[in-house]
Amino acid sequence: MQKERKDTPYMGTKESLPLWLHISCSILEFLPLSQMDLLKSMLVLILVAFIGCFNGESKLLDECSSDSDCEAGLYCFSCSQGFSGSRCVRSAITDQFKLLNNSLPFNKYAYLTTHNSYAIDGEPSHTGVPRNAFTNQEDTVTQQLNNGVRALMLDTYDFKDDVWLCHSSGGKCFNITAFEPAIDTMKEIEAFLSTNPSEIVTLILEDYVQAANGLTKVFNESGLLEYWFPVSNMPQNGEDWPLVHDMVSNNHRLIVFTSIESKQDTEGIAYQWNYMVENQWRSATRIYHIIMVQMPQLSVGRNPKAVIGVSNELQAMMAMME
């Protein structure tokens, strides 16, 4: 007497299945009943795992082949310096102000920071000459801000009688190393601050601008002076920064640091080493400078400083890509 077979749930025609599964189903038709039942069960488990891994359910750092493989909030990304192959990574940060609140001093939080934020893959030449300079970012500045970046490291230069963002050396910008006029990026930042009234953005300028009030002109024309955090309100002698919610209510939502000390007096732009420090991370061939994380009071030389916290790990990764 032939053994009765139990019906199995319909899963579509063989023609709708992947080729490897189609072949497997065909082989099953010729197997003895006991072996077929066993292999069919195994095949169903494999199919469930296959669908789960490649149907929008792959989790953080799981392998992937496309964005659709990853669960909500993740996308498929490859980074040879971080991991092999492609894996699901976060597309945006977790908002620390939603996890906690914004009642602490500004320096008590860590902020995601991008290095050479303007050096973007695919940025068209604005000089008419093909660019020959390293890039560090895949996202535009607007995309970076929308994805949770809250501090941007920008290199500012005198170029073409204006201020440009340039990835150059020796303090000189050239056609082949120029990215774009600084005003364009500043307008992106202004648009973000305008549409996100509770957010604060920090700019860290590697500054080569020598033109008198050159940076002030750019900040004024872009509308960013409306959000300016004045140097006079910055902490002294190791004090904490103002509370975040007070900075927001006063619309002091743009903090700018320059690498040129004299501009703190001439243009009211904070000299960065009065307010932050860097540690060093050494590889086999280079020393990388990394901005410290969440160090509200740190003695540097004779004067303790209040330090803005930024992402240590990201700084290390970005410095490696310089």
TrEMBL record:
Coiled coil feature spans: none
Gene Ontology biological-process annotations: lipid metabolic process
Pfam families associated with the record: PI-PLC_cat
Lineage: superkingdom: Eukaryota
GO terms, molecular function: phosphoric diester hydrolase activity
Protein name, entry field: PI-PLC X domain-containing protein At5g67130-like isoform X2
Species for this entry: Phoenix dactylifera
